[in-house]
Design a protein that fits this description.
Blueprint (H helix, E strand, L loop, with lengths): L8 H18 L5 H13 L23 H4 L8 H4 L5 H26 L11 H18 L10 H6 L5 H13 L4 H4 L4 H14 L12 H17 L2 H18 L8 H19 L1
Helix pairs in contact: 1-2, 1-10, 2-10, 5-6, 5-12, 11-12, 12-13
Amino acid sequence: MAMGDLTSPGVLLALFGLFVTAFLMSRRVRGSLLWGILATTLLGMFVPDGGGAMLTKLPSQVVALPSWAVLSRTFGQMDVMGALNIGLFSIIFTFTFVDMFDTVGTFVGLAAKLGIIDKSGSFPGAGKGLVTDSVGTIVGAVSGTSTVTTYVESAAGVAEGGRTGLTAVVTGVLFLASLFIWPLAGVIPPQATAPALIIVGLLMMEPVLKINLSDVTEALPAFLAILMMPLTYSIANGLVAAILGYTVVKLLAGRAREVSPVMWVLAALFVLNIALSAAH
């Protein structure tokens, strides 16, 4: 990572969107993220990209059918017998591990934003959520898409008041509609969505206030999670660092009794995963 060019039109447009969205949120305007995206998209129609075109490019059509010629390249294209090869065990284990703990980390972060985490660290409907995510992952794999899983961007919906299953249903219907209005959706440049993602990161920082910084056995694992997630671009890697750090520090501090059996099992699985990845 390095500092980008702050004088480039794209960066300046993204900064504009960030501050507009922050201003609207400070005024408690409903739909601040959406209005920020729209404002940035409109301004992008007048900002050149340096290649003779504008950052916001108007589509030649609004509605279009999905191309089956493209979808058929990956839809149902599974090598089941190849997956049964014992040599793929470590790969399957790694992907299962990454997807599962990315999901768990996202669930916990969103639940913390909702304020529904109980004393045991769980929340109502956690099991149903994990089952739904698992089914989505399987269906997505069969369809040949990128992984269908829980995304941290859902924090944007939580911040706007989406706190029931109806929010997910409406989002799903809109995604279904996007199959046919994808040319219109493609109008929005990445400079318009980047500010929204930055704000989502801000919203996810709220649970940090609950960290007991006076206890190094609690603060260090939390710090490792916060540090590793952005540096490795992976929620799972952050969880691995945090859980391993938690178990090791608690053990060295003579407070191993505070580590639950589940945490010991997870730590052992993480060590196994690291060993398999190193041997591959």
